[in-house]
Amino acid sequence: MESRDGLAALPDQALMARMKQASNSELMDGFEILVGRYKNAIVSFLFRFVGDYRTAEDLAQETFLRVFKKVHDYDDKAKFSTWLYTIASNLAKDEFKRRARHPARSLDWKGGGDTTRNVPQIKADTTDSVPDVQLEHEEVRQNVNKALELLDDHDREILVLKDVQDLSYEEIAQVLGLPMGTVKSRISRARLAFKDVWKKMGA
Questions:
Q1: Could you give the CA distance from residue 198 to residue 203 in angstroms, rounded to a whole number?
Q2: 35 vs 41, 51, 82, 83, 162, CA distance in Å?
Q3: What pLDDT, in 10s, does the model give residues 31-67?
Q4: Domain boundary at 128, 158, 188, which?
Q5: Residue 54 and residue 143 in one domain
Q6: What pTM value is reported for the model?
């Protein structure tokens, strides 16, 4: 059985491969290491995407729960972070569909109801420590969030993936299941849309 420090030294793909063969305690250690590596980034992505921090944490919880349940389905040759963002993105899209069906309950997302024991609750350290949420001035941060909320879902999603989370074009193409050329054109369109919204806001 490998020590927790030994597991923590492994890169994502190797850690996932190890978790497939792990005992229950080693599996949980590996999972908690992955959560620690990515929880802030995933909550940040979801917060920017859905516009509500509580919902973002709930969706992040479901994202990591699905990782935990699908450890043995993971392709060790695939980049873990891309797989993780794909899961989170799909859950965010499901959330928007749910909101469209039940707008009065848009902030009452409860996830899939899974009560898997021992899976840690996903809480970003604070909103201030989440990557990209920190900006020089609070007013600027709020205006950026407002501008993102005014974009359509597709523009917001791809802009957050590229300019907030700093994923590569290749990673975004994999997350969204789109050809590279489409990704580049949609990013350009989303940036223009953001600039237009920003200008209209007078920010």
A1: 6
A2: 10, 22, 15, 14, 22
A3: 999 999 999 999 999 998 888 888 999 999 999 999 9
A4: 128
A5: no
A6: 0.78
